[in-house]
Design brief:
Elements lengths: L2 H10 L4 H23 L5 H11 L4 H29 L3 H21 L3 H19 L7 H24 L7 H22 L11 H14 L8 H30 L11 H15 L8 H24 L6 H24 L7 H4 L10 H25 L2 H16 L6 H26 L6 H6 L2 H12 L7 H11 L10 H24 L5 H26 L8 H26 L7 H24 L5 H19 L7 H15 L6 H23 L3
Helix pairs in contact: 2-3, 2-7, 2-19, 3-7, 3-20, 4-5, 4-6, 4-7, 5-6, 5-15, 5-16, 6-16, 8-9, 8-10, 8-11, 8-13, 9-10, 9-23, 10-13, 10-24, 11-12, 12-13, 15-16, 16-21, 17-20, 17-21, 19-20, 22-23, 22-24, 22-25, 23-24, 24-27, 25-26, 26-27
Length: about 700
């Protein structure tokens, strides 16, 4: 049968043909890991098969990175488990309390991380649970048990890497780079239109630009895994995203005012227009090696044209427009990232010196979700641990093991309770396959080796379940549940009632986790989006409080560096919020561009107001009155957005900024900003705040 005929038959039977090859080779890798672990005499060889399934990934770089984090997380978790068992001295109460605290810590740290680092933190939590809850016997027996856990993990990871490395393709670098360049081209087209340069088509709406940038940001989540060159490419792309959003902010201010930037007649606008148009065309081309030098030349020409425009503006005695300044910074970021992108496209490993010195941007971390995940995991396991300590029933400990995995690994998912439905279905299938093997197949085995080889058809069935359209969701848990129940010990002990009770204990994990996710800090994609929006809105009162705590003469800690930190986090959070809103089709997603504009505008006004307070000598009654009104505006801004939503609070806040803007002692530019805050930004933010639950 030819390959095309086999593909046609597989598709007709409902299999995802691109996934089928990956699933079958992973199933074979899991069986090979089991075979090798059994040959090495390890006590729990089926754990090696589970590790092989857990670390297998369709791309080489992700395969290597996930395997490293699985090993590192297992080492940390096992080390904690050994220490806790030695400390507890067979006291179940100490074990329950220590495991609950450790799981809470791992859930908290894991929800703050990005990429596979989060997986490593979660794995440290439930690796400790596996050792603590499955260990039976005296305290001294913990050492061989812990070594068995580590050796099975190493066996599974190495087997999966060795087998999958021969078939797994490299990451598709060109896809991300092309998408990033298309998004940046759209931002440059908007800049050309705002500068009244007649060399580009009509720009896309600001909401569309934000959506494109947000899609790139989501792809950057796992892109850096497994490659130093990819990490530097990702870092440079984050800087490009930051500079692009800075330009989008200034373009949005012009759009709000319904004006464009008028450059002086002596400014070489046509030269800048042609250079930007050529750059847009080069960015929209496919990122192929033969196009690399053309893109670099276009970038250099655009930077030179922008510098010439800035020099002409300064020679005319005018202030450089903020849009032109933001455009120049974006072009510089793109030029700095060009070499990293080219090295990534060529598959080169060592970054150059200036790439290693590139500072990472401060990115958003979900502190609220991390605290909730810690309370959910730690509290639930503490409650069940108390039941275990009171009853000393081993099945409770076995159920805690499955629940710990569910509460740790899936706490960072968009909608964990929905995911639990697929996980439960997958584990039911895995438990059914395990029961079939234990009751119908293994009774025919005459040795331990025969039991191992009898697992081969079931391992392949797990691969088919993984690749089929109807069972793909939750198929990973099918294989995990099947292998955790299939411990090849000859002669087989226990009857079908014991096997059934163990299977029910395993599948109780996702069932209990579904109840926990529904009842304890219930979360889904929409709630996560609302939490992020509330965090962004809360930054404005928090900044006002910090400025009030500073007092008058002292310098705000960090100065402009702290302002840049705030802006970088705002930009990253805005992209995250846009992506959440696109996924959930949030009715208010059309206002997100205005949200970003208003947050940046209020932050700028607050910092400039503090700068005025710091630099001004209050020598006249008018200046002292302006200072009092400035403090009042800061106080009302700090009090705005509390838990109790008082409609009069917004009125008083607007009145404070309105009164401040009318003071003659305030510089005209700052007075205009204060007036815009009162009339535009506060109502815009309050309108969005009212839409949040």
């Amino acid at each position: 049968m030819s390959a095309s005929t086999a593909t046609t038959w597989a598709r007709a039977l409902g299999f995802h043909t691109p996934v089928l090859a990956f699933a079958l080779r992973t199933a074979l890798a899991a069986f090979a890991a089991l075979l090798l672990a059994y040959a090495l005499g390890l006590e729990h060889p089926h754990w090696a098969a589970m590790s092989a399934w857990a670390c297998s990934q369709p791309m080489r770089e992700h395969l290597l990175s996930r395997g490293i984090y699985r090993f590192a997380g297992s080492v940390v978790g096992v080390a904690f488990a050994v220490g806790l068992v030695l400390l507890a001295q067979e006291s179940i109460w100490v074990l329950a309390l220590g495991l609950a605290a450790w799981s809470a810590l791992c859930a908290f740290l894991g929800n703050l991380q990005r990429g596979y680092m989060a997986y490593g933190c979660m794995l440290a939590g439930y690796s400790a649970a596996m050792v603590i809850l499955l260990h039976v016997g005296p305290v001294a027996a913990i050492w061989p048990f812990a070594w068995d856990r580590l050796l099975t993990v190493v066996t599974g990871v190495l087997t999966a890497v060795c087998i999958s490395w021969c078939f797994a393709p490299r990451r598709r670098t060109a896809v991300l780079i092309a998408q990033s360049r298309h998004a940046l081209a759209g931002v440059l087209q908007a800049a050309i239109a705002a500068l009244r340069l007649p060399a580009a088509p009509a720009p896309a709406p600001m909401a569309a630009l934000l959506s494109r940038l947000a899609e790139v940001e989501e792809l950057l989540e796992l892109y850096p895994e497994g490659s130093r060159t990819a990490r530097h490419t990702s870092r440079s792309m984050h800087w490009q995203q930051h500079r692009a959003l800075d330009l989008v902010y200034h373009l949005g201010l012009l759009q709000r005012a319904e004006v464009a930037v008028d450059l002086a007649p002596e400014v070489p606008a046509e030269q800048l227009a042609r250079a930007l148009a050529s750059l847009v065309q080069a960015l929209q081309a496919a990122p192929e090696p033969q196009q690399a030098q053309a893109l670099r030349q276009c970038l250099q020409q655009a930077i030179a044209a922008c510098e010439a425009a800035v020099a002409a503006v300064q020679a005319a005695g005018q202030a450089v427009p903020e849009v032109l300044h933001a455009l120049y910074l974006l072009l510089q970021a793109m030029h700095s990232g060009w070499e990293a992108e080219q090295r990534d496209l060529q598959g080169l490993r060592r970054p150059v010196a200036h790439e290693r010195r590139m500072a990472p941007l401060p990115l958003h971390r979900d502190w609220v979700g991390a605290r909730q995940a810690a309370v959910r995991a730690g509290g639930t396991l503490l409650l069940l641990g108390m039941v275990w300590a009171l009853t000393e029933w081993r099945l409770v400990a076995f159920g805690m093991l499955g629940l710990s995995v569910m509460l740790l690994v899936f706490s960072g998912f968009e909608s964990p309770h929905r995911t639990m439905a697929f996980v439960l279905r997958g584990q039911l299938i895995g438990a059914a396959l395990a029961l079939l093997c234990q009751t119908l197949v293994w009774p025919w085995a005459q040795s331990g080796w025969q039991m191992v080889w009898m697992l081969l058809p079931f391992a392949l069935l797990g691969g088919l379940v993984f690749a089929h359209q109807r069972t793909a969701a939750g198929a990973m848990d099918t294989n995990m549940a099947m292998f955790i129940l299939l411990a090849p010990v000859f002669p087989q002990t226990g009857g079908w009632t014991q096997h059934l009770s163990m299977a029910l204990a395993v599948v109780s994990g996702p069932a209990l986790a579904w109840l926990v996710y529904r009842g304890v800090y219930p979360t889904n994609a929409q709630r996560r989006m609302h939490t992020l929006a509330r965090m962004m809105l809360a930054e404005v009162p928090a900044l006002a409080r910090r400025l009030l705590e500073e007092g008058r003469p002292a310098l705000w800690p960090g100065g402009s560096a702290a302002a840049a930190l705030w802006q970088a986090q705002l930009h990253h959070r805005l992209l995250r919020l846009v992506r959440w809103s696109d996924k959930t089709q949030w009715p208010a997603r059309g206002q997100l561009h205005d949200l970003g504009l208003s947050l940046r505008a209020m932050q700028t006004a607050l910092l400039q107001l503090q700068q005025w307070r710091r630099d001004t000598i209050l020598a006249t009654p008018a200046l002292r009155r302006t200072e009092r009104l400035a403090v009042q505006a800061l106080q009302r801004t700090a009090a705005w957005g509390g838990v109790a939503r008082d409609p009069r609070q917004q009125v008083r806040l607007q009145a404070a900024w309105q009164a401040l803007s009318a003071q003659p002692g305030l510089p005209p530019a700052l007075a205009a900003q204060a007036l815009q805050v009162a009339q535009r930004d506060i109502p815009a933010l309050e309108a969005l705040r009212q839409q949040l639950p």
